Amino acid sequence: MSNNTQTEDTYRAPRTRVEYDRLSTQHELIKAAMGGQLLRCPVNLSRPDLRVLDSGTAQALWPLDVARTVPATATLVGTDIAPQHFPPPEERPANLTLLQQSIHDPWPAEMRGSFDAVHQRFVLAACPSADAARAAVAGLWGCVRPGGGGWMELHEGNMHVIREGPQHGAMMRFRDTMVSAWQNGIGQMTDPGPRLGGWLRAVGAVDIVEEVQVIKLGAEADDPEQGDRAMAVLLNMLDGMKPMLAGKPGHPSAEEFDKLRADLIQELNEVGNYWEYYLAFGRKP
Fold it and tell me: pTM to 2 decimals?
């Protein structure tokens, strides 16, 4: 199973150690927010012939975790546009295959209609428009096994919704800075999360479930470890954008990025805030 076509790397965030630290922290943050679950959709993970696809797998953190919970006879496939960031073969279980694949390209014929669970997390934000994201969802949906037993689960964010007000000035500046960076700097979507259910309905999914997870930051968090993780994700986002955009027209200077970072740390440690992410899953009839 392979895709030998040349795939453009459309991931616009920096591929640096800071970014991969963010993805690692984000993985643990979301797993904890889901109570340790890796999938919400009701797929039987104990099936010996289980087939699972993780699109946009990056360092394959998610399928590596799944591999610890499913039979060794299950088939796990992770895909990404940047195979240079896959873990080396010696660090992968025998039942995990990693392949280069863009969500914007046609999926290989042997992958279509073959997976019991198709999972994708925080990938559609990289689409330049809602139309492109909708098309990507339709392409991914083609990999779900038909006949009533195949599911697709999508996770995405919404950068716009935070707690606002006089006590949250730094967080509001952060939100506005990142929205501008995403929309005008790297050309990505800022609010795919609320659209997931509609995109699933558009491809014909049934039994759709939509959830909103509230991720509390800093002082607002019930669990200090989760609060720290959530802060780390935001700070790594800011640190990733600084070398790409600082001083460019319409974006803060390097000094303004540094001031925002310091103000954000102080404010979140004192009063906290939150951000939301959405998950939705649906079954293929």
Answer: 0.91
